[in-house]
């Protein structure tokens, strides 16, 4: 009796079940929550991109997610809370893409890696990029704190890195803020203006191979624009 009582207690606390097959209760609940939240966020991203914040409704999003509206409000009490979560989630993706700046002191590798990561995100999350762009175009009223408290400090650290490359002769004397804005504009163009790209290129959509080729062309253009030079090349030139 004591053994069985202990087993039930362990199950309730999230312990391993006797047969080892079913995950603990807490883990199952966490997995269900994560799955539902991910589904709702993906569908919210689609609806907000299509309808905008004002035109979207939680009923539309719940229907697209295949969940009752009450379930949506269990995870996100208001439409604005869900909208904010979509923006924050997108920022986190972009922030992770920016980790390439931390991986190398070589501007060719760091900038090239950042451009590739941003292009990949434009391919993977074009609707999220549209939501972000629309919010900015309409005054960024719902994300001023994200811009001021998260984007701005990050940008300032990148400016410092770019200035150090310029001082070492590894980059042309570009204006760092303008250079970063240019990268954002070029890479996000492939998400925000994909309809225009398709129309002008006469294609339904870029294939993966065509997108990869376009990405490398964008990398080459950006690196030429800033005059990036690898430290190894610079050291070799000095030695000669």
UniProtKB/TrEMBL annotation:
Q: Which Pfam families match?
A: TetR_C_3, TetR_N
Q: Which InterPro entries match?
A: Homeodomain-like_sf (IPR009057), HTH-type_TetR-like_transc_reg (IPR050109), HTH_TetR (IPR001647), Tet_transcr_reg_TetR-rel_C_sf (IPR036271), Tscrpt_reg_YcdC_C (IPR013573)
- A single GO molecular function, which one? transcription cis-regulatory region binding
Instruction: Note the DNA-binding span(s) on this chain.
Output: 57-76
Q: Cross-referenced PROSITE patterns, in alphabetical order?
A: HTH_TETR_2
Keyword terms of this UniProt record? DNA-binding
Q: Which SUPFAM superfamilies match?
A: Homeodomain-like, Tetracyclin repressor-like, C-terminal domain
Renumbered to this chain, region (Disordered) spans 1-25
Where in the numbering of this chain does the HTH tetR-type domain appear?
34-94
GO terms under biological process: negative regulation of DNA-templated transcription
- According to UniProt, the name of this protein is TetR family transcriptional regulator
Name the source organism: Caballeronia cordobensis (Burkholderia cordobensis)
């Amino acid at each position: 009796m004591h053994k069985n009582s202990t087993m039930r207690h362990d199950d309730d606390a999230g312990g391993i079940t006797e047969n080892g097959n079913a995950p603990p209760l807490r883990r199952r609940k966490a997995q269900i929550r994560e799955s539902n939240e991910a589904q709702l966020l993906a569908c919210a991203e689609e609806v907000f991109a299509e309808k905008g914040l004002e035109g979207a409704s939680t009923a539309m999003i719940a229907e697209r997610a295949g969940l009752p509206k009450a379930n949506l409000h269990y995870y996100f009490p208001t439409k604005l809370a869900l909208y904010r979560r979509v923006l924050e989630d997108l920022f986190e993706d972009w922030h992770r893409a920016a980790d390439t700046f931390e991986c190398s002191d070589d501007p060719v590798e760091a900038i090239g890696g950042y451009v590739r990561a941003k292009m990949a995100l434009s391919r993977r999350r074009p609707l999220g990029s549209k939501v972000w762009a629309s919010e900015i175009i309409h005054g960024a009223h719902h994300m001023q704190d994200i811009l001021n408290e998260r984007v701005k400090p990050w940008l300032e650290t990148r400016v410092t890195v770019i200035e150090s490359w310029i001082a070492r002769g590894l980059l042309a004397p570009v204006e760092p803020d303008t250079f970063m804005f240019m990268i954002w504009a070029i890479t996000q163009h492939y998400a925000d203006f994909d309809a225009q790209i398709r129309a002008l290129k006469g294609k339904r959509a870029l294939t993966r191979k065509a997108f990869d080729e376009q990405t490398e062309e964008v990398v080459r253009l950006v690196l030429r624009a800033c005059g990036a030079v690898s430290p190894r090349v610079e050291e070799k030139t000095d030695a000669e």
